[in-house]
Design goal:
It contains 22 helices and two strands. By secondary structure, the protein is mainly alpha-helical. The chain has a two-stranded parallel ribbon with strand order 1-2. The protein is elongated and about 90 Å long.
Length: about 475
């Protein structure tokens, strides 16, 4: 993006209300967690954070904690969902920073802040990277030293001073990433910004880039794999690297290699995406459901077809559980749609219309979104174990809406004024549902039929 385009983006972001900025930031962070459009999300998120924090275009020198933990940015998560290998809780960084300044590496922390103050005073960023790297090494050594278990050494009290158990769990990961910053940076620089299809040639190239001793440890390999996943258009395809390294698709042979953790990571991320889908459905947010269902469908199918999984194995049971969770989340919502449609379109006698509930345009749009949701589910139904309920519900909706629309159009030709006005609202809602179910052409046809019915009724009244 050119400098002019970047400035326009930053100006636009600066005009947003603080609540909108915070919401946008959370959405981009969630997109990065899911591995969607990582390059774009990272760029916009960087500009948004600059706006929120009032930064300039030069490197920040007034936030030492952010500079120290910069290598951890690609791996930070903020949700309440359990973290997996290759992730670190963002909430763990502040307690670790405070411990470094208080007990862990106080001399190095003071020297770092002094160096930053001198750099700010000079107005130049010369020497900034050197100061950051020096402190990162010192911090990594202090963190790894305090977090590494030693036989016969009681460290519970020391670790408790750093933070709660979640923070302690992240310590070795934080220290390991800081120590391996250069290796991870090199790995990132040797990969394309996006891998649309993780082909054999790309797998071989990534495997070569990964062949670095510091990245092959059980502690660092998950972070290297996470970095690769962020470049994949379909993150589940990381299992192809594990299959390649094992030279087999048999889960036992794959699990026996260090790269078996790639399968565990892929399964965890599918579980996380399932939880996001469940939350969005409960809140009535259907904007991203199509993308979520496609990602889940492709991921579940990919693991089922590219790996020889046993039903009674750990991985096999995890995948079965994910499919069951998806099915349970979708099924109840799918089954509720016909009832909501009937509530709006149900034919009523003229005398009952006065007590009938009013038709809210917002509710009509919500139901139309639900009908579209059923249609999207139908596309991915077989792999997500919702085939029967989805096909049955969609067929029922088509038959009911088609018959109801025709009946309502005919009913517009008679009845008293109040009944006709109510049925006109019903017909309008039915035509909106037709547009979702049958397309724009059929909806336009029924709309013209409704207009003709109303026009014909008015002419009859005038003649009488």
């Amino acid at each position: 993006m050119s400098q002019t385009s970047t400035e326009r983006l930053r100006d636009y972001l600066a005009q947003l209300p603080p609540q909108s900025q915070a919401l946008l930031m959370r959405e981009f962070e969630r997109a990065i967690e899911r591995g969607e459009d990582v390059a774009v999300a990272n760029f916009v998120l960087e500009q948004l954070r600059k706006v929120v924090r009032g930064t300039e275009t030069r490197p920040r020198t007034d936030d030492p904690a952010r500079l120290l933990f910069r290598p951890l940015e690609p791996f930070l998560v903020e949700s309440n969902f359990p973290v997996r290998a290759g992730q670190v809780r963002r909430a763990s960084l502040l307690p670790v920073w405070q411990w470094l300044g208080r007990d862990g590496a106080p001399d190095a922390a003071r020297a770092f802040e002094t160096a930053l103050a001198e750099i700010r005073q000079s107005g130049s960023s010369a020497g900034l990277e050197g100061a950051i790297r020096k402190f990162q090494f010192a911090a990594a050594d202090a963190i790894v030293k305090v977090a590494t278990p030693v036989s016969g050494d009681d460290r519970h009290r020391t670790l408790a001073r750093i933070g709660p158990p979640n923070v302690v769990e992240d310590l070795l990961s934080i220290g390991g990433v800081l120590r391996a910053r250069e290796a991870l940076d090199t790995l990132g620089s040797r990969m394309p910004s996006q891998l649309r299809v993780f082909s054999e040639a790309q797998i071989a190239s990534v495997g070569t880039a990964l062949n670095v001793p510091s990245l092959q440890t059980p502690q660092l390999l998950p972070f290297a794999l996470s970095l690769i996943m962020q470049r994949l258009a379909s993150p589940w395809q990381i299992i192809r690297l594990a299959i390649k390294m094992a030279a087999s698709d048999d889960e036992i042979r794959v699990a026996a290699t260090p790269y078996g953790v790639a399968v565990t990571i892929a399964l965890h991320d599918l579980s996380f995406l399932t939880a996001c889908l469940r939350t969005d459905i409960r809140r009535g947010h259907f904007d991203n459901v199509g993308e979520q269902l496609k990602a889940l469908h492709d991921g579940v199918r990919g693991l089922r077809t590219e790996l020889d999984l046993r039903n009674d194995s750990v991985w096999g049971r995890q995948l079965t559980s994910i499919r069951a969770d998806i099915s349970n989340s979708l099924q109840s919502e799918i089954e509720s749609v016909p009832g909501r449609v009937r509530r709006i379109l149900r034919q009523r006698a003229d005398k009952d219309i006065a007590s009938a509930p009013k038709i809210d345009a917002a509710e009509v749009e919500e139901i139309a979104a639900l009908i579209d949701f059923v249609a999207v589910c139908r596309t991915y139904a077989s792999e997500l174990a919702i085939n029967e309920v989805t096909l049955r519900t969609y067929s029922d909706l088509q038959h009911y809406v088609e018959r109801s629309t025709e009946s309502l159009v005919q009913a517009l030709r008679g009845g008293d004024t109040r009944a006709r006005a109510y049925r006109q609202m019903q017909a309008k809602a039915a035509i909106r549902f037709c547009e979702t179910l049958f397309g724009h052409d059929y909806a336009s046809l029924m709309s013209r039929a409704a207009e003709n019915a109303m026009t014909g009724e008015r002419k009859t009244t005038k003649v009488g």
